Amino acid sequence: MIQGTMSGAGKSLIAAALCRIFAQDGYRAAPFKSQNMALNSYVTRDGLEIGRAQALQARAAKAEPTVQMNPILLKPTSDNGSQVIVNGAPRGNMRADEYFRYKTSLIPDIMNAFEALAADNDIIVIEGAGSPAEINLKENDIVNMGMAKMADAPVLLVGDIDRGGVFAQLYGTVELLEKDERERIKGIIINKFRGDLEILKPGLDMIESLTHIRVAGVVPYGRYNLDDEDSLSERLDAKSADVIDIAVIRLPRISNFTDFSVFEFIDGVSVRYVSSVSELGEPDMLIIPGSKSTAADLVWMRENGLEAAIKRYKGVIFGICGGYQMLGGEITDDGGAEGESVRGMGLLPIRTEFKTEKVRRRVSGVISDLTGTLKPLSGAEYEGYEIHIGVSSGDTKVGDTKVVSKGNVYGTYVHGIFDKCADKVVNCLCNKKGVTLGDTKIDYDSLVERELDRLADSVRESLDMEFIYEILNGGTA
């Protein structure tokens, strides 16, 4: 099990790296996270919803993502509440205190999922959440040491040195644990290190002496174009503009911003996230992403002036999922799915009615009948998935195509719509701007595989893998 001293310590990518290493070494490996809180989600082949991080880890393990890899997914709907998804399907919205009382009833679901994975694999790489030393949350824990106990798993504790204070993080975490919990930690990983390892070594010796836990390795800082957990992703802080400037509205409840990762592989293209009119500028394409609270985020844009700026903007506008709904006319919510009805921007010929039943499905096909700057995309193949509670309707074309367009305004429910056609989108934007970028064609799947191998190579080189395998075989008592 991979646990961290805090959120953002790098648990997800360390787990992904180990999944790839074990797969490279000939083992059947699978990721597992009993409870994930994230707005970046993924739909499995059987139409069930899990966190994007577990889907990436499954890919690293060369395994098909399944709902057993993430039996509980919490999608925040407010500062004090989340939609609770169990075994890939919604159970309803709960306040934090309500869920805290409810969560132990989900232990059978967690263990059924874990045991199903364990029956089919040699190694399960379990990821914790946040920190195991959150003393106000330790009672009835189901995701950190509580999960380690249920699975009888040895633990590697990851600390982020890049933010500073890593030794205090590690020592404080260990000291706040119970004796039996401390004994589960078999190794420490220092993550995101930059600098001279020789200067760090005295600190490594001291932390081993203080905690009586061996340092399993020091992983260097690296930048990888791989899906991140939503709230702490560094890419959300990117502000620079390149030859082709793509601006994404950073909604308060932004979801599935990984839809735009593919553009970051293309030289000369920048993706920046904006939350105010002053940051918007004049991008070549403006994207309104998905949202877990569509109506509330639309009202937020209306109140801070972004809606008015978008309606004045003359370039390419693309809405995905919640962003697509916002671009249409009325959004009605008579069933109380989000709590309110709201007037849309009126830029696309659709209207949306929220339903209580969530649409979850994988989709593929060919984009057709586009207008405006992106018209050359007509005929391009797409593959992705839909996760939404709204049903949109409008003129006769709306039901016939997965991408609705009117002039230079486009909308779709398909997450991953750009993965197979990002180069064509960029070429359209280049033609409109009168610039060239050379070869923009990319194979996104191959690039992700390359990044996973690069990550695995770095982690393999940095960790004492002989020691890791000894831990897996029950050693280092």
Q: What would you say this structure looks like, in words?
A:
With 477 residues, the protein is α/β, with parallel strands linked by helices. The chain has two domains: 2-226 and 450-472, P-loop containing nucleotide triphosphate hydrolases (Rossmann fold); 244-436, Rossmann fold, CATH 3.40.50.880. The protein contains 15 helices and 24 strands. The strands form seven sheets. Strands 15-13-16-18-24-23 form a six-stranded mixed sheet. Helix 1 (11-24) runs parallel beside helix 2 (52-60).
Secondary structure topology:
Layout lengths: L1 E3 L6 H14 L4 E4 L2 E3 L3 E3 L5 E3 H9 L11 E7 L2 E6 L2 E7 H7 L4 H14 L2 E4 L18 H7 L3 E6 L5 H10 L3 H6 E9 L3 H15 L3 E6 L23 E6 L4 E2 L13 E6 L2 H4 L4 E4 L1 E2 L2 H11 L1 H7 L3 E5 L1 H6 L2 E3 L9 E2 L6 E17 L14 E14 L8 E4 L2 E4 L9 H12 L10 H19 L2 H8 L5
Parallel strand pairs: 1-10, 2-9, 3-6, 10-11, 11-12, 13-15, 13-16, 16-18, 18-24, 19-21
Antiparallel strand pairs: 4-5, 6-7, 7-8, 14-17, 19-20, 21-22, 23-24
